[in-house]
Amino acid sequence: MKGIPSWVTYSVLRLLLFAVPLAIMLVLRIDWWIAVIAAALIGLCLSYVVLRKPRDAVARDLYAARHRTTPTTTVDDDSEDAAIDAATSATEKPTSPDAKG
Question: What does the alpha-carbon distance between residue 61 and residue 68 come to, in Å, rounded to a whole number?
Fold first, then answer.
């Protein structure tokens, strides 16, 4: 079984680093718009400092996806190609070498 993709882990941690300070400030009855701005700034700063490893993992995954040496194919791609080949060969009429076109 494959693990959780690194981008999912990074996204969830970023959301938590925003939501926790926001919840704390809302419980302290700070105006909602000030709390949202402050939580966004706190989340940004904390994610830059604390989430270095997950951010690097996402960057490596993106680099690997963009610089793949061989294209990846799935079973669905192969079945679609086979269906197209079958449809193309069914519509083509065999021509004899004597026929002039």
Answer: 11
9 burial type by CB count under 10 A (0-12 exposed, 13-18 middle, 19+ buried): middle
For residue 32, the tally of other CB atoms under 10 A from its CB is: 11
Cβ atoms of residues 39 and 21 within 8 Å: yes
Residue with tokens 């959301």: 15
Distance CA 69, CA 21 (A): 43
Please give the Cα distance from 42 to 50 (Å, whole number).
12
Q: pLDDT digit string (tens) for 14-27?
A: 999 999 999 999 99
Nearest-angstrom CA–CA distance, 21 and 30: 11
Quick one: average pLDDT of 73-101? 73
